[in-house]
Write a structure and sequence with these properties.
Length: 505
């Protein structure tokens, strides 16, 4: 994976790291700057959103005003696992260089940008000492986490973990990664990926609460670090930084005009759910990209034995909401399959053409379990799916049928999860909002409607970036002091009408 190095960002937009005292002073100054910027009612305001996914990242300019809610992409760059001698990692320096260059370009195009917000995937982290990063962050798909699972459950059984942190079992949850990481004992602190990049911009080391809820070390009931649990697992409490909420100012982005860095729902799904225009009290959502996050927004965590058995999670949302959901393997299955075929062909596979051909095929009689553990790691996805189906891998002429099986299998997993979510929460789900990249996949949207028996409202596609922008601009005073999530969602629905897919008999 290539990219601009941290020391060579475009236009000289490098950020220096300050000491704790400087960072605190900058945080105070940033609060004052944000407050001062709220004085022009009705004006179009601009912010920068850094939105990082597991396969690519973007820097967007968000503009908000009376009747205005728009995004402009100014940078898009690849992201993904890189294999080192000791396993799979993230190329953080390349990622940092891309972010710096993207922010510099955003400010070049829109000098009136008032703040920056950063979101990314969950669970992965960087360990820091006095002089910075101790090692390149591991990728959550690295298989070292298996020994971490055994170590954690040997000290605290999963039943007790769930009662305390409310998290579904995923072998890459941060708590398991820590148990497999010898460097944790040497670290001064640990920062999740968005907080790590915010630290490079501002010098301040904090943990945004929605993403911290994915570590397994946040108390699901209080929203605070569970220090007793950390101690029981041998994790030094010093590596758990102070918590901040979405909307709080982290500090000033030095090298970028000293504009404030505002905490958003830094777990990308938390930002995405901000921009889901929930049209009913019983609406469910699917935030669909590499993963499909399928669930409900609830006021309190649901940590029943039934929820644990169903492997549902309770993660933090913006404004203290709870995201009660289950992770379903999403478009990762399709993208890895297409990647493998492209490598074999020596030329890119035309995905839109493949999906159009797949839509013309009949619904398959046989599916596979989209959540099967054998599909988790990078590699030869077509061969692994064929093994689950008990069929030979298709030749080129049979790829449309195979793609249809993949999409229908994902949709079937979505439908099963929706039914379970309603049962566990005691809700009669009446509509499903599907946001993110999956909203562009009409075949997937229709298959989800057909298999769930529920109408699917697709869009907005850019829910994560929109949620990031909305939290920033609300913090800047764009919507008034008392603007709720519902107020923000009304704005989304008015500007980004959904595409409806009704279930077919």
């Amino acid at each position: 994976m290539s990219g601009t190095s941290a020391g060579g960002a475009a236009n000289g937009a490098s950020a220096t790291v300050a000491g704790a005292g400087d960072a605190a002073a900058d945080s105070d100054a940033a609060h004052a700057a944000a407050d001062a910027g709220a004085a022009v009612p009705g004006a179009v305001r601009a912010v920068a959103a850094v939105d990082l996914g597991a396969t690519s990242g973007r820097v967007m300019i968000g503009r908000v005003g009376d009747g205005v809610l728009e995004l402009e992409q100014v940078a898009r760059f690849p992201n993904g696992p890189v294999e080192r001698e000791d396993g799979w990692h993230w190329d953080l320096e390349a990622l940092w260089g891309h972010v710096q260059a993207g922010l510099a370009e955003a400010l070049r195009r829109e000098p009136s940008i008032e703040s920056v917000g950063i979101d990314s995937w969950a669970v992965d982290y960087g360990l820091l000492g006095a002089d910075g990063l101790l090692a390149e962050p591991f990728h959550y798909r690295d298989d070292r986490t298996a020994r971490g699972v055994d170590a954690v459950h040997g000290l605290v059984p999963f039943e007790e973990l769930y009662r305390r942190n409310g998290l579904q079992f995923l072998p890459f949850n941060t708590v398991y990664q820590y148990a497999a990481d010898a460097l944790v004992a040497e670290a001064e602190t640990s920062l999740l990926i968005p907080d790590l990049l915010a630290e490079r911009l501002t010098g301040r080391r904090v943990a945004e609460r929605t993403n911290a809820s994915t570590t397994g070390l946040l108390d699901a009931h209080t929203g605070e670090w569970d220090l007793a649990l950390a101690e029981a697992l041998g994790i030094p409490s010093r590596v758990l930084p102070p918590l901040v909420d979405p909307g709080e100012t982290v500090g000033l982005a030095r090298g970028l005009g000293d504009i404030p860095v505002i905490a958003v729902g830094s777990h990308d799904t938390a930002s995405a759910i901000v921009a889901v225009p929930l049209s009913s009290p019983n609406a469910a959502y699917i935030s669909c990209g590499t993963w499909g996050l399928v669930g409900l927004e609830v006021a309190e965590p649901i940590v029943t034995d039934a929820a644990r058995a169903a492997n549902f999670t309770n993660e933090g949302g913006v404004d203290g909401r709870v995201r009660f959901l289950h992770n379903v393997t999403g478009l990762w299955l399709l993208s890895e399959t297409v990647r493998a075929w492209s490598e074999r062909d020596g030329a890119p596979v035309d995905l839109p053409a493949l999906l159009a051909a797949a839509a013309a095929e009949p619904a398959p009689a046989r599916l596979f379990d989209a959540d099967d553990a054998s599909l988790a790691a990078p590699g030869d996805m077509p061969a692994r799916i064929a093994a689950l189906l008990g069929t030979p891998e298709p030749d080129v002429e049979g790829r449309a049928v195979f793609a249809r099986v993949i999409v229908e299998s994902i949709a079937d997993a979505f439908a099963r999860t929706l039914r379970t979510a309603g049962e566990l929460a005691g809700r009669e789900i009446d509509v499903v909002h599907l946001v993110g990249g999956g909203a562009l996949n009409a075949l997937l949207c229709q298959a989800t409607a057909d298999r769930s028996g529920l109408p699917v409202l697709a869009g907005p596609v850019e829910a994560t970036a929109l949620g990031n922008v909305l939290v920033q601009t609300r913090a800047l005073g764009c919507f008034g002091a008392d603007a709720s999530l519902e107020d923000l969602r009304v704005r989304v629905a008015s500007v980004f009408p959904a595409v409806r897919f009704d279930p077919r008999s």
